[in-house]
Amino acid sequence: MKFNELEIKIKELKKKRQAIILAHNYQLPEVQDVADFRGDSLELSRIAAKTDAKVIVFCGVHFMAETASILCPDKKVIMPDINAGCPMANMITAADLKKLKAEHPGAIAVGYVNTSAQVKAELDVCCTSTNAVAVVNAFKTAKEIIFVPDKYLANFVSKQTARKLISWNGYCPTHVKILPEDIKREKRFHPEAKVMVHPECLPQVVDLADVVLSTGKMCKFAAETEAKELIVGTEVGLIYRLKQDNPKKEFYPASERAVCPNMKRTTQEKILWALEELKEEVKVADEIRQRAKLAIDKMLEIA
Ligand code: 13P
Ligand code: SF4
Which residues, other chains included, contact 105 with Cβ-Cβ below 8 Å and sequence gap of 6+? Predict the structure, then answer.
């Protein structure tokens, strides 16, 4: 691979700062190109938890950097653009969750990792799109299960586990842009293609898919399937990695409109500035961190 001047500077400074760069699968190609690791929410938190680096440059959205900070309090976690938030995570507050729990005493509170640290501190257990079904299945004897904030992920998990879940009215504004018509159109254009979609998609979209997977599992499925063509029902940024990993296969975005503006805020320039100034730091206060960590540890223990 040929590196440009900016990439060379990032590499040098990264070494000097003893930093690693983690990038979510939806990041811009230029960001993925300078990352040490790219992956889904679960893979990135696992890497953050075991790295020896002193500094973690998190190229993703705020809750992901917070998760890294919760898991590694002794490391400096920095975001190249601190304003990269997740609108779905912002759809529920800790006060909302406390109220919901009070309405359902004794219920197990399961929360998607796409939540703030304050919300995680109120959860019994966290989950990601990779392990949500396994996490809910781990509480077979629970009388009631709360599942926040994504109502579409809750719907998918409820169907897979045959359990009624108490859900919240949250959703991902990017994934709901993918419509059933988009899948039907792409299937007409590419009749041989397999359809993989993210569980954050609308239920009518999920119903049309061959497989419903997290972004990390989509990468694995794409590499292992016999299919030579795949229709991809998630944020368009994943296509870059899919094509790089599988140069002989064709990938078609279900909808070009499925773009997460927050995931696109990070650029190579911002990564370089972040490494120069070691800013902006994401640090979760200890009292919240310890409680939030229990929910993340519980997830890692189950899945
Ligand atoms: P995963 O990469 O964990 O599937 O999550 C998708 C997503 O929307 C992250 O914000
Ligand atoms: Fe949040 Fe959706 Fe963007 Fe993921 S793709 S960060 S869930 S808004």
Answer: none
Residue 40 CA to ligand 1 centre (angstroms): 6
Find out whether the beta carbon of 40 lies less than 6 Å from any atom of ligand 1: yes
Query: Is the C-beta atom of 115 inside 6 A of ligand 1?
Result: no
Burial of residue 226 (number of CB atoms within 10 Å: 0-12, 13-18, 19+): exposed
Pick the CATH number of 175-253 from 3.40.50.10610, 3.30.420.40, 3.30.70.100, 3.40.50.10800: 3.40.50.10800
How far apart, in whole angstroms, are the C-alpha atoms of residue 135 and residue 139? 7
Q: Helices 62-71 & 41-50, crossing angle to 10 degrees?
A: 30
Distance CA 250, CA 242 (A): 9
Residue 197, beta-bridge partner list: 212, 233
Among 59, 61, 178, 198, say which to mutate for ligand 1: greatest number of ligand atoms within 8 Å of CB: 198
pTM of the entire predicted model: 0.97
pLDDT, tens digit (0-9, with 9 covering 90-100), for 171-194: 999 999 999 999 999 999 999 999
- Binding site membership of 218 for ligand 2 (Cβ less than 6 Å): no
Strands (E), 176-274: 194-197, 211-212, 229-233, 250-253
